[in-house]
Design goal:
Length: 103
């Protein structure tokens, strides 16, 4: 599992708060289904059962909002992998995680 803390979002456009008008929308992008939006709580996210919950890696806040996520199963190996980015309203940082079952 990889983890990054950023000052700006990486998995979604920098102007995502203006660009999206829903907390979470389904988007088809280069063969994957992404969920992107202005930010949604873990409990309400469509992928909540597939992605391991995490909080802000900078300040420890658990009440973060998911702004971008995707979950996939590799067609050949069957390995699961996902990417997820959350925004922390307490410290203003973005935490991004990437998981691959075969790592
Ligand atoms: Zn934080």
């Amino acid at each position: 599992m990889y983890e990054w803390v950023n000052d700006e979002p990486r998995l979604i456009e920098k102007d995502y708060k203006k660009r999206y008008n829903k907390p979470c929308e389904e988007i088809r992008e280069s063969g994957k289904t992404w969920y992107k939006g202005t930010g949604i709580a873990w409990e309400k996210h469509p992928l909540k059962r597939f992605i391991r919950k995490f909080g802000c890696a900078h300040c420890g806040n658990k009440g973060v909002k998911i702004i971008a996520a995707q979950f996939s199963v590799h067609p050949m190996s069957g390995d699961r992998y996902w990417d997820c980015e959350v925004f922390c309203e307490k410290c203003g940082k973005y935490t991004q995680k990437a998981y691959a079952e075969n790592d």
